[in-house]
Write a structure and sequence with these properties.
Layout lengths: L1 E5 L3 H10 L2 E5 L2 H6 L4 H12 L4 E5 L5 H15 L3 E6 L2 H12 L3 E7 L2 H9 L4 E4 L1 H6 L4 H15 L4 E4 L5 H8 L5 E4 L1 H8 L2 H18 L4 H4 L5
Helix pairs in contact: 1-3, 4-5
């Protein structure tokens, strides 16, 4: 399963890319608007940080298929690299997905809430579909179950579209989605820290340090291996 960052915060992207196995960055109009900065500067800076080989998903602000295609071409020209236009699942969106694919543009169909939406998006040529986990949970639905069934439908029909699960609020949701066979998740920067945290890990690290220091003091392993003059 791949891990993507769901943010346009440049400092957070730099930090996470330094420490975590980040496969790319996803954005949407809400995420972009939070930065209150020049749009071109934001997306080109993200590309500069992550490089050309990691995925950058940028959502369209257009609603009609032809306009979505034109906007996707402009964004692709601006950011280069491994780029996917995010398109909400609508009739125009499905048409736009086919158009973008015919022009060699990667497509992520977003705002997916049902299995039939995901199947239609795949048949329209989407490379990724992005089902929203927490938003489904918030309406007393089961976001993880929806992802699981989308994964199973794709396997049944031999569909190559990948499932990029989105909208997470806690580590347990991410964990449960990983059990479904989803291809990727996109999460906010804070969730990366949550995913690696466990108090017993830090207890173990403290025990290692105490046991080492009891015998070798403040000398590190590398120092003890240095040849004496």
């Amino acid at each position: 399963m791949l891990y993507l960052l769901d943010t346009a915060d440049l400092d957070a992207i730099r930090t996470c890319c330094e420490y975590y196995p980040v496969a790319g960055v996803t954005t949407n109009p809400t995420i972009i608007s939070r930065e209150k900065s020049d749009f071109r500067e934001i997306i080109t800076s993200i590309r500069s940080i992550i490089g050309p080989d990691k995925m950058l998903h940028v959502q369209t602000t257009e609603e009609e298929a032809d306009a979505i295609l034109r906007e996707a071409e402009k964004i692709r020209e601006t950011v280069g690299g491994k780029f996917f236009i995010k398109i909400p699942i609508t009739r125009e969106g499905l048409k736009a997905a086919s158009l973008c694919k015919s022009h060699g543009i990667g497509v992520t169909m977003t705002a997916i809430f049902t299995q039939p939406q995901a199947l239609l998006a795949a048949r329209a040529g989407a490379d990724f579909v992005a089902p929203y986990i927490n938003r489904l949970d918030n309406i007393v639905s089961d976001g993880v179950r929806v992802v699981e069934e989308i994964v199973n439908i794709y396997r049944t029909y031999g569909i190559g579209t990948k499932v990029l699960a989105a909208s997470f609020k806690n580590a347990e949701q991410v964990h449960k989605v990983s059990l479904t066979g989803a291809d990727a998740v996109t999460i906010n920067p804070d969730l990366f820290d949550t995913l690696i945290y466990h108090p017993l890990t830090y207890y173990a690290i403290d025990d290692f340090a105490k046991d080492w220091e009891a015998v070798y003091g403040d000398k590190k392993a590398g120092e003890l291996l240095e040849k004496k003059a």
